[in-house]
TrEMBL record:
GO MF term set: transmembrane transporter activity
Protein name: Unannotated protein
Membrane topology: Multi-pass membrane protein
Subcellular location: Membrane
Pfam families: MFS_1
GO cellular component, one term: membrane
Entry keyword set: Membrane, Transmembrane, Transmembrane helix
Amino acid sequence: MASNSPSKKFSLSSRYGLYGLFFFMGFSTMAWLPRFPEVKAQLHLTNGQFGTLLTSGAIGGVLALLTVGHIVHRVGSYPVLFGSIVVYQSAMVTIVHLTSPLLFLLCNFVMGMGISGFHISVNSQAMYEQDRRNIILLPHTAGMWTAGSLSTIILSGLLVTHVSLVKHIVTLTIFSFFAMNIMLQAVRKDSLQGSKEPEVKRDIKYIYKTFHIDWMVSIGFLLAIQFEFAAGDWATIFSKEDLKIKVSLAAVPYMAFMFAMIFGRFGASKMIKRFGMENVIKRSGIFGGVSFLIFMNIAVYFTDRSHTLTFIFIVLAFFLGGLGASFNPPLFLNAANNRSKHPASVVIGQVGVMNTSLTALFKAIIAWVAQFASLQVALMIPAVMLICVGFFAHIAAHKGEAN
């Protein structure tokens, strides 16, 4: 829902500050993922035990998604942005020192809350600026997050054998903290302000009563984003184990996917202006899903025939799939805001809760299909889901109240 604040022109410094916040969000939150083996070894845990502990972050995130949107609506985006940065980055600096699984669980819970709090507040700020300037901004901000994520994954890969886990994460987090606060000051003068409405008691009962599921948006969003999650979870494993690509090159298909996501998201506005939002959503989903299915299966065919052709075709599959998947998730988040009577900050939290729940379910389905059939078959599921996004294109393309 658009803000009722008077329209005003945003400065370039505010806009670039917002882009910077998204970039450093991806840069800081994704930094420790390539170093999970070291974190697990430090805790002396098995894969199953470590994976179970990681779910505490998702639980903390869901708690924040349910509550932080109401806080942003009441006090504005700036205090929550600053507080979230302090919380999740303090937790990140702490967590890489821990050797106790119990302390890790608690710290990861707090970090999950902080990251979700930042996600809600920074996207609320993006929607506020988007509404005031009457432009489509969310694909660009999502592109900046992806660029930050890719940058830190590449950096982590270069440092993993040369710099210790603690030195890497602590130094990067401190740098990110100061950089994000510079960006935050640039955004502050144009930040989303707190509501001037009379105070409403927002207890657990109120949050429960006002929680609304827009099933059309939720299903469309799930179909649009599942390919992105599946690529992150399985691209490198599929390349290395199923396609027998060298370890040193196994991450290249996923990197190609990330580059395509960045390219697509920054070009989304031009595509929408030229072809219209509904056409872009339909065609990009079909293009990405069909291209991935064709070239992935060609890559599998050449696995025992030509390592070079296998590598070329799987990189092409993930690049074209990423290009097709890049446009749609931000557009469905935008649709959720347009169709809801609630403030943007609350809508983002509600969509996040549903997305987290449905995504966890489909991640499990894909994992078990990979276990009992093959990864080739499992990766067809999110590709087909991407193709089906077109059935919900009208939801994202047109404003209107949700049923």
